[in-house]
Each structure stands twice: as C-alpha cells, then as structure tokens.
Amino acid sequence: MDPPGSTAGACTTSSAADTPSSTTSTKATQVTNDSNSPPEAIMKEKPFAMVDATMIKNKVPPPEEQVPTPNPMVAIVSSSTAESTAASTGGNGGRRSSKRTTMTTTTTTAPPPAKKKPKTSSKKEQDLIDMAWICVACREAECAMDMTSDLLICEGPCRRLFHTACAGLAQMPCSDESWTCHDCRDQRHLCACCQEYGNDQEDIFKCQKQECGLFFHEACLNMQNIAVKTTTNTNSAATNEPETNEHEKDEEATTAPTPRSVKFTCPAHWCWTCTQDETMDDSNTAQQKTKTKGRRRSRTSSVFVPKRDPRLYSCLECPTSYHLTCIPPSCKVHELALLCHEHAENHELPALDMEASFQGTVEAAADKKLQKLNHKHNLDNNPLAAKLNRKRLKRRKARNPFFPAGVVVDRRTAHEQVILSKLSTTTAKATDPTKEDDEMTVELILGNNNNNSNNTNSSSSASSDQRLLFGLPQDIQEEVHSKPPLYKHIHSLKYYPDSKPKKIPPTKDICNCVDKCDEHCLNWLLYKECVGEKGSYTNCRLGPKCGNRKLGLKQHVKKCKPMREQGRGWGLAVQETVKRGGLVQEYLGDVIDEPTKEERLRQWNLEHPNDPNYYIMCLSSGWYVDARETANMARFINHSCDPNCILWRFNVGGYMRDGIFALRDIQPGEFLSYDYHFDTKQGDKFVCRCGSKNCRGTMKEQQQKKADTKKTKGQLWEQAKQKYEKDKEYIQNYNAHEKHNATVWAMVPGTSNSGNTKGGDKVEWTSNGVPEIDRFYATRSRVFLWRTAVLGSNFASRNARMERRRRRSRQPSPAAATAPKATMDVLAILEQLKGGA
Ligand SMILES: C[S@@+](CC[C@H](N)C(=O)[O-])C[C@H]1O[C@@H](n2cnc3c(N)ncnc32)[C@H](O)[C@@H]1O
C-alpha cells in the first residue's frame, strides 16, 4: 500500500455524526445566570434538565426513580463566567455526539448549589460558574446556572445532554416521564475510539465508571492497551477476576447481569501525562505541609509545590484526558475546549468568542486599565511607557486564573477571520444584495432566526461550528453503511496503452517437478507462475494443471462478501473455506506509473481531505495498482498485524501481478487481512485498528527493516560473513545423497520441512536453526540466500561472467584479491550438489 507521505489524517472512514442538521438549535447565546430559583423548584419544572445538574452540585444521590446522575463529563470546566461560557456558542468542534465535546471533567467533586450570580470569585463560587453544559447534538454551550435552559439529560447509560429540540422533541417531557435518547433506546452506541456503532454488550461496552457515558469496542480497547476484564457470566465475575490496573479499583459496573461483561475504565479517567486518575494523590503536598507546620521550612522543603487541580480535561476528539497542570505544550487549549497532543495538529479548536469569554473579559479589563494609565500620564508616545506596557501585558496573561502561566490561548487568526467573514458575506450578498454586511453574516449563520447580534466575531465562530456541526443521524449512517461503496468491477489488471510496464523477458529455465508444481517448484520459488505448454514457450514440465498457475487461471476464492469491519470501514469476509497457500484474490485496478500515482494521490487528497482510505498498491519498481475506482473485491481487504493472508508479487508471463494468498486455513465468515507494510514516513498517522495482540499500532512497514537499514555496510558485511561461514560448515556436513526434492525443500529456510531427520536425529537444515525472520525477509523482499543457488539460479554463471569481464579488462580484480577462499569452496560444493541432484 502506498499512502502519501504527507496528507491523510488517521481518522475513521465516515464523517457521520448524530446531529440532524434540521433540528440544530439556533438559539441566541445570551444566557443569564441570575436565577434565584432554589433547586427544588426547578426540579419540579424541569426534572430532566437541570435537576440532575443541581444534584451533582449538591452531591445529592438521585432518587430511586430517577436513577442516574447526569454525566458530568458533559460539563465544561472552563472557569468562564456564566455569560461568557454560554455566549461562546457551540463551544466545541467535535463531530460526533457520542464524544465528550468539550474540555470536560470527570470530577466527582461537586460544586455548591446554584445561587445568585457570584460577585466574588471564591473557590466554591468559581467552581459553580465553571459549570457549563453542552448539547451533544448542536454543540451549543449552556451555562449550568441558567435554569431556563431546555436541556434534557438522557436517563439511559450514555448520560448525554440534548436541547429539547435537538432531541427531536417539541417540548420538555413531563416530570414523571423518563426520557432516554435514541441510541440508548436502541441499545446501540458509538465507539468513542473508532466512531462506529455497535450493539450494547455484544460488541460495544460501556466504561465501568458510573458517571461515564462512553462506549468502546473491545478491539479498540485492546488497541489502546486498556486493561479489560471479560467474564461470560456476571455472577462469576467476582471470583474469576484477572489482574486489574490501578484505575479500575473504585467502581463496579452498573449494568444488569448480561451473558458477557467487559469491564474497563476508559482513558477519560486518568491523566495521559502523569497516569494518575482524577482523585490525584496530593499527599506529597499534604505531607510537606504537615512537615513544615509549626516550624521553619527547611531548605530542602522550600521548593514550592503547588496544589494540583485533580480534575481531568478531555480532548474534543477522543477520551484522552489531562490534569490542567499536565497538559503538554503540544496540545491546543482555550477556556472552552482542549485538543490532545494527537489531535492538535489536524483539528481546530472551536472559535472562542473573545469579547464575551472570560479570557476576553480579563484582557479587556487590563486593556482598559492600561489605557486609563496611559491617558493619565499621557505616555502614549513615550518609548519607556511602551516598554512598561509590554511588561504589563506579559503579566496580564499570567493573571488569568484559568491558565497556568505560559499556556497560550488559541485564537482564530486575523487572516482566518477575514476569510470566514468574506465567505459568509459574499454568499449572503448573492442572495440579497440590499443587506448590510453584518446583518447578512449573522442572518446567514443563524438561519434568519436571530437578528440581535451584530458581533462578527461570534458569527464567524458560529460559521465554523456550522461547518463542524454537519453529521448524519444513526439511521442515515446505517443506510450508508448497508451497501459497500460503488466501484467499477474488473476481472484483470487495467493497463493504459500509452503507459504500460515493460515485459520481463522469459528465461530458458524449466522446472523439474514430477507430479505437481507446488511450493517446491522452481518457478514458484522464483516468484514466477508456470506458463505455456508443450509445443510453445513454457517454463513448466507439467502443463496447465501443474498447480502453479493460480493467478493465470484465476483460481481465486469465488465466495466472498464485503462487510463492515469494526473501526476499519469495509472489509472482505470469505463465505467458503480457504486452504493454506490458496489464492484468495488478485489485487486488481488501474496500472499506473509513478507520476500518475503522485498526481492521483494529490488530487484525491485535495478533493477528499478526510478520506482515510488508500488503495494504491505497489506492483513492480515504478508501477502501481490503483483500486480506488476500478477494482475487484480485493480492494476491501483490510490490514492486520496478525494477518491470515499475505501479498506476493508473481511474474505471470512477463508481467508482475499482486496475489493475496492464505497463510493458514481460513474458515467461512472470517475477515481476510494482510499486512499492508505501508510505505510512508508518517506511520503515526496510519493508525491500525486490527486489535490483534501483536498490533504495531500503525499500518506502516515493520521496524525490523529500519533497524537493518541503520546498520553500516561494514556491519552488514560482517554479519553476512559470519552467517556464511556457519552455513558453509553446515553444507560441508550435508548429506549430498538426499533426494533432490528433499534437498530443494530443505534448503528453503523456515519452511515446515526445513528440519529433516537424518539417522533418527533431528537435523537443522540451516546452521542457526530455522531462521523465521530470514524466511520472512527473503520471501517478502524476494532476496534469496545463496543456498537457493542450488535451485537453479544463475549465481555461478553470473560469477563466471564477471570473472570473464575482469579478465577482459586485464585488471586484477580487487574483489578477487580480497574474496575469502570460502566463496570458492562453497561454489564447488554447490556445483557438486547440483551435479548430484
Ligand atoms: C484498501 S482499503 C480497505 C478497504 C476500506 N476499509 C474501505 O472501507 O473501503 C485501505 C484502507 O482501509 C482502512 N484500514 C484498513 N485496515 C485498517 C486497520 N487495521 N485499521 C484501521 N484502518 C484500516 C484504512 O483507511 C486504509 O487506508
């Protein structure tokens, strides 16, 4: 497979999300937080919306009929003022509703009950104003204190929040009605890792933390190395528990007994950086405090250890979470949202309405003060004053209580702002040229429902959110996933007449097979298929039924079907048994050269920047097969680090062809897979989700090769020489009277017959035992060890040719002078062996 070196991101195949765009809330974002209503009163009015929020704040356990507390993971911990948080419309850029969508917290430390808008910023009050909710459908943030907001909390396991309209309801359900979202009703949820739907408790499982509403596929958990306890019977779970990690100790699954239970704690509950969970142990700090209490600080304890905020902040795009003080510099962060180190590069934070945000308020206040000061002292044009201002500006950043010093707020650049506003203005002008610019922008963004705002900043933020908001509801997503994508089906490689690879000239070698051309066949060993029959050119003694003509005779598996494969898009499953060594499929498509390949990749990435699928496979040097639009079923076969197939390139009648062969017997219903060995420098972007135990985490070429290439020539030569000496010794002891076939077979390192018995003793046919790695490398790279010379390669004649050339040039050969004598000895042995056979 040949992905480009630079473009694709590692994301899922579909762009689907759950947001029905028609029901997207277009509510104005001015939310007041001056409600005086006591929690009880609100509970009566809106049992599904803010009730749970209040309970969380009060740490009140929910009454039995209202089972769960809300998922605090949908609470933005933003330290923003209530207005600002709410005014930061659509404060997140995630695309799917099942993800936590904001800089979220899993804290169980509840803020105090809702009160009047706080005037001071004591710790508790700060906590209170920290809280904001986000609707998982429209992604609009609501202040947790806004008791008039119409947010509903799903009472199902997902614990997500929706606006009433976004949940598809005309009005709030009655207080005695319980409400669960569509996904919880259908018992189907999206995996927070791969964003594919799965059936609850069958192939998708909820994190065991009670307040967590995230679901994961088992394979996705394996891929992330998350410890999982699997039990078939929940009753026996207690007795038969395997080892657990430290994050799993606190909570038990809340789900009812099921035939199979998978228990785990998802990555949203511990910090990626320090690996501690949200109940972060501050005992060090505490100890230090106790030590220093009542006596003077010793020198050693004089280091200031700040008390860390134990809350975890999660990425918009995945469950990766950090403590505030553990956020690495490679992340993007602002007061409403965070992008983890992996998503920061390829994703944008939602635009922050700076004027209304907390950050903006702090900065504006500082600016005002500065201006006043300048005015007072009339220092505007004074260079000294300018210097002073710069210093103050620096200090101003550090004064923001939300960010630790040094964390820079990510703002939309001026350039982006201009583009966005121009875009919206031009489109609006096209429809109604009489309108004023600002008015049009707002109207366009808010769908004519809101004419109050003329804040271009917030419009551009809304605009960007609209871009991110698009998504498909589950039923549409399922519809899309019910059929594999269309492509033009072909039965043989499609060559373009003006650019076709050159034919490889035939050789005079003919195989020696007696009954059947199988793995012993000379052609097979040289990655050639037998062709022709008596009377015409042929390289085979046996004729068309020889057994080594699978690609030529299209002897591939006929019954196979494209099916969705968890986290990998479409895959190909067989519907019949495939025997080991059998041809599964030929990889078919357009045969293109290097420049065409580069151009196609460039063009596709330009037009489909989010498509993670690559279909270009190497065919021979400088030639490729592109199976994106013209192909056969092989285009659906996915990658696995523990594959059941392998891709081999065979010369069939002078042209190379890619065949996918079974590495073992494959049963009906099994998905086919092979190792892509993606040739890319950006292996990290091609995330593998095969879920196998030995998963490399990437579809990139194995590291092994890299290690080899790092070796210097001298080291490689030394290594080869040592091996050569050992092999020479072995060959000398070799019983040359063995039957030819056995000899040939045994000479192929790593094959199952490569250990033979001689006089009852096990004989290693290679000096170091079975070098599996050599076999793999040799077969994959089509590099044969010198031992395979006995199989008919023209190794000896090549040497003779070279010797002749040297003699002709009448120059003493430097190689001959330094060549170890052993080479000649081994050649002699090889000749002997050949003669003996
Ligand atoms: C030849 S296509 C395979 C068919 C593809 N899954 C589809 O839906 O059309 C190769 C692409 O499939 C996806 N893919 C294949 N194996 C994968 C794996 N183990 N993990 C993640 N993505 C995989 C990647 O996007 C890759 O670029």
TrEMBL record:
* Database matches in InterPro entries: AWS_dom, NSD_PHD, Post-SET_dom, SET2_Histone-Lys_MeTrsfase, SET_dom, SET_dom_sf, Zinc_finger_PHD-type_CS, Znf_FYVE_PHD
Tell me the ranges covered by the Post-SET domain, including all copies. Answer: 684-700
Q: Which SUPFAM superfamilies match?
A: FYVE/PHD zinc finger, SET domain
Every PHD-type domain range: 132-187
Where in the cell? Chromosome; Nucleus
A Gene Ontology cellular component where this protein is annotated is: nucleus
Q: State where composition is biased (Basic residues).
A: 290-299
**Where in this chain does the record put each SET domain?**
549-677
Record-linked PROSITE patterns: AWS, POST_SET, SET, ZF_PHD_1, ZF_PHD_2
Q: Where is this region: Disordered?
A: 1-48, 79-124, 232-261, 282-303, 799-820
One Pfam entry name: PHD_NSD
Low complexity: bias regions = 1-29, 79-89, 100-109, 232-242, 811-820
Keyword terms: Chromatin regulator, Chromosome, Metal-binding, Methyltransferase, Nucleus, S-adenosyl-L-methionine, Transferase, Zinc, Zinc-finger
Which GO terms are recorded in the biological process aspect for this UniProt protein?
Answer: methylation
The yes or no answer to whether the keyword Ubl conjugation is present is no
Give the chief site where it resides. nucleus
Name all AWS domain ranges: 506-555
Entry GO MF terms: histone methyltransferase activity; zinc ion binding
- Which superkingdom? Eukaryota
The protein's name is 36 and H4 lysine-20 specific
Q: Which organism is it from?
A: Seminavis robusta
